[in-house]
Amino acid sequence: MSLNNDWYDNIITENGILNIPYEQISNERKRIGFGRYGIVYKTTCNWIEGDVAVKEVYVRSENYRECIENFINEVKIHNRARNKRIIQLYGISRNREKKLYYIVIEYANDGTLCDYINKKDLKERIRLATQISEGLSYLHNKLNISHRDLHMRNILVKDGNIKISDFGMSKGLDDKNKSFGLLPTFKSWKLSAFALDKVSDIYSLGVILLKLSNCRRTLFPKEQTRKREKTTMTSILKELQFKPLEPVYLSTIKRNHHIDIQF
Ligand SMILES: Nc1ncnc2c1ncn2[C@@H]1O[C@H](COP(=O)(O)OP(=O)(O)OP(=O)(O)O)[C@@H](O)[C@H]1O
């Protein structure tokens, strides 16, 4: 990707993204998260009703290119994803003096799925699983985008409903450049390198469904539950390999539901 000094103005004009003047974002901010490239705050913006979340990206000279390319990729892909299961992108902003860039998004008042599932019953967990599948199905089948970083902390909850977030790693599926990342495997229960694409998203969905079906935060379980979970996961993966994409989302949930009830 070639980067010139106009990159910020270019992504706005080329992608129809709203440029929010920095002064319109309130200075009263509460830190709500932390990611690879900076801090996430809850705040307000004069142009938008209600609370917003802003992802602040600090561009240092040593990682200038990587930061900006990541920012551009995230904003471009996020801007295409307009669906009730996806956190809404409002616009972007910058503070030139401090070399800070901002992605302004819808605030998820119920936090991450990781925190939200605590003490939720089976019916509620199945409702959430269905919504996650709807969101992922939208990205894969309608937009041809793979998320590539799907996990419990990138899935947010607003007013009890799922909002998939964080498109920093996402890619269009026609992008030929393969890249790899670490995912937990069920053979060794350790992280292993996988090609990150649509299939790895489905794998991640399987991991999330597994966590939801057991109502716990960690993938690494106590010894006595491991065997049972391996069987569950094996059947999910088998299912995913042999059926076309769309029905798989639903059958995976039904299957998980079924297995869960049998526990
Ligand atoms: N819209 C939001 N509403 C509420 N909380 C949010 C929102 N966006 C992010 N967060 C919080 O901030 C955390 C980090 O956000 P996010 O993963 O998007 O940042 P990132 O810099 O892209 O991180 P990563 O290292 O995963 O790429 C989330 O796990 C969540 O706790």
UniProtKB/TrEMBL annotation:
SUPFAM superfamilies: Protein kinase-like (PK-like). GO terms for molecular function: ATP binding; protein kinase activity. Keywords: ATP-binding, Nucleotide-binding. Residues 26-263 form the Protein kinase domain. InterPro entries: Kinase-like_dom_sf, Prot_kinase_dom, Protein_kinase_ATP_BS. ATP binds at K55. The keyword Metal-binding does not apply. This is 7810_t:CDS:1. It comes from Funneliformis geosporum.
